[in-house]
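User: My collaborator sent over this chain with a note saying "see what the structure looks like." That's all I know about it. Can you take a look?
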Amino acid sequence: MKLTPAEVDKLAHLARLEFSETEKKAMLEDMDKILQFVDKIGELDLDGVEPLVYLNEENQALRPDQVAQTVTKDEALKNAPQRDTDYFLVPKVMQRGQEEDPS
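Assistant: Without extra context I'll predict from the sequence alone. Here is the result:
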């Protein structure tokens, strides 16, 4: 599978990235190499091969979850740009109800 420059442009747009023409060409070459590698994997006979879930057989030494108050409410609110007595105040980002279509 080969990618086209238009597909790289679309992926860059979706990822909110901008590339110069030189960078776009390098990205296209790198992505083609990745797809060629994936195609090689598709050629292998993987019948009976169990999926790899963990990279090693060791059990992880996890600590138990314990609820603890590490920061008080006053300490958390101390450096907030805007706050009231109990909460951070942030700008409203959503409006209730129907908004008028700007077009």
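A starting point for your reply to your collaborator: The mean pLDDT is 85.
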